[in-house]
Amino acid sequence: MLKQVYGDDTVTLKTVYAWFLKVIKIVSNRGYIRRVRSHVKQSGFWFLLHHNARPHTATLAKRFLAQPGVTELSHPPYSPALSPLDFFLFSTL
């Protein structure tokens, strides 16, 4: 069916499976998640801002956050139009 739509530019199923396996190997590597800037890593004190986006609620992310030594801080719900990173824009309110 895809071949009919995209013609010769269609990616083979074998290629899709190869990409999928490559991504799974990268994501399942705990060292990949722990990579942070060296000066932050040396301090041992850093924050990871996440929300309910699909990558943040994945099983692997939940397992990482459930480890000893990882503390989750909840924040109140906010408008999807305004990210917590944009709060500095309204410092006078």
Question: Low-confidence parts, pLDDT < 50 over ≥5 residues?
Answer: none
As a percent range, the share of strand residues is under 5%
Number of domains: 2
The overall average pLDDT, rounded, is 70
Integer-rounded radius of gyration: 20 Å
Oligomer: single chain
What is the end-to-end distance? 55 Å
Largest sheet data: none
Number of helices: 5
Order of helices and strands: HHHHH
Q: What's the count of strands? A: 0
Shape: extended
GO molecular function: nucleic acid binding
InterPro entries: RNaseH_sf (IPR036397), Transposase-MT_Hybrid (IPR052709)
Protein name: Mos1 transposase HTH domain-containing protein
Organism: Araneus ventricosus (Orbweaver spider)
Name some characteristics of this structure:
mainly alpha, 5 helices, extended, RNaseH_sf, 93 residues
Give a brief rundown of this model.
The protein has 93 residues and is mainly α. It has two domains: 1-38, no CATH class; 42-92, no CATH class. The chain has helices at residues 2-6, 13-27, 30-34, 38-43, 59-65.
How would you describe the overall organization of this protein?
This protein has helices at residues 2-6, 13-27, 30-34, 38-43, 59-65. It has 93 residues and is mainly α. Helix content is 41%, strand content 0%.
